Amino acid sequence: MLLHSIANLLDSIKNEIQHERAMKGYKIVADEYLKLRNEIKVMEDSMTTLRKLGVHDYETQVEMINQQLAKELAKK
After folding, report:
1. How far apart are the first and last CA of the chain?
2. pTM of the entire structure?
3. In sequence order, which residues have a C-beta less than 8 Å from that of residue 2 and are 6 or more positions away?
4. Whole-angstrom Cα distance, residue 17 to residue 4?
5. CB distance 65 to 57 below 8 Å
6. Angle at 38 between CA 36 and CA 40, to 5 degrees
7. Torsion angle defined by CA atoms of residues 24, 25, 30 and 35, in that order, rounded to the nearest 10 degrees
8. Taking every pair of C-alpha atoms in the chain, what is the biggest distance, in angstroms?
9. Spatial CB neighbours of 55, under 8 Å, sequence gap ≥ 6
10. Is there a contact between 28 and 34 (Cβ–Cβ < 8 Å)?
11. Comparing C-alpha atoms, which of 65, 67, 68, 38 is closest to residue 54?
12. d(Cα 43, Cα 6) in Å, to the nearest integer?
């Protein structure tokens, strides 16, 4: 009977330790997720601001601006 009680106590303590470690790992992952989600929100807000200013195809527009700048610099 005493051995059974000790085994149950050991099992209970082992499960509690595993649960605590799992919760610490979960908290680390959850915090990182929230951080990245906030970074994405900031980027999406910036993209929305650019769209409102008329910038839609960023790569093509930057390429055209650079080409025009090169032409203007070549004229000087």
Report:
1. 97
2. 0.57
3. none
4. 20
5. no
6. 70
7. 100
8. 97
9. 61
10. no
11. 65
12. 56
